[in-house]
Amino acid sequence: SLIGRLMFELPEEMGLIAVAVRQTQGKGRGGNVWLSPVGCALSTLHISIPLHSNLGQRIPFIQHLVSLAVVEAVRSIPGYEDIELRVKWPNDIYYGDLMKLGGVLVSSTLIETTFHILIGFGFNVNNSNPTICINDLIAKFNKEEGTELKPLSADCLIARTVTVLERLIEIFQEKGPNGVLPQYYKYWIHSGKQVRLRDEEGPLAWIVGIDDYGYLQVHQEGKGVESVHPDGNSFDMLRNLIVPK
């Protein structure tokens, strides 16, 4: 891709963002194709992270920071704090725990002592089909609360997401995971939820939080807390399967 080639030709401190109007070759996790019609905010962002930094030692956290940045981009606007936009571990943006509105995909290349990271993120701003979009949520909120919040534009939300992400990265680099986790938990959909481990008949476990490396922590009766990682696409709200590391 163009941005993949450009990534290594730019000065170190310069970030690069590509914004797609319409995407037909989107990549999802596990090789799924992600189609993005008009009405979706879609971008690829390039950042550099030093290997010997807090985030460089915990690269899986980047997808969580980006998901959080998308949610914050909306919910940090005065008046929009109660729009039910949330994060779903590891890399989705949801309306409550009901419907997916967007997602994040991160790929990283380590060159000497610097991670070059490509972040793809997309979320549905104006499209009511096939799912729901952010402006639907705003309209619904206005109707229920008697407010007059304006619809948001894709450009504004992409710009806000990048700005919030830069701030979250700074905080993470300074304070580590604990600098951002309280905010992440405020917006995530998993508090107090149960999941099955390994398969649909597997043991039940409670979701506790995420560990220092961004993996999910679960508590199984009599077993204590263990960390699990996403198994391709199996961690979905319908099947709730996760695989211990």
TrEMBL record:
Q: What family is this protein classified in?
A: Belongs to the biotin--protein ligase family.
Write down what this protein is called.
BPL1 ligase
Positions of transmembrane segments: none
Which GO MF terms does the UniProt record name? biotin--[biotin carboxyl-carrier protein] ligase activity
Q: Which residues form the BPL/LPL catalytic domain?
A: 1-173
Q: Name one Pfam family in it.
A: BPL_LplA_LipB
Q: What Gene3D superfamilies has UniProt attached to this entry?
A: Bira Bifunctional Protein, Domain 2
Q: Which SUPFAM superfamilies match?
A: Class II aaRS and biotin synthetases (SSF55681)
Q: Which PANTHER family match?
A: BIOTIN PROTEIN LIGASE (PTHR12835), BIOTIN--PROTEIN LIGASE (PTHR12835:SF5)
Recite the UniProt keywords alphabetically.
Ligase
Entry's Gene Ontology cellular component terms: cytoplasm
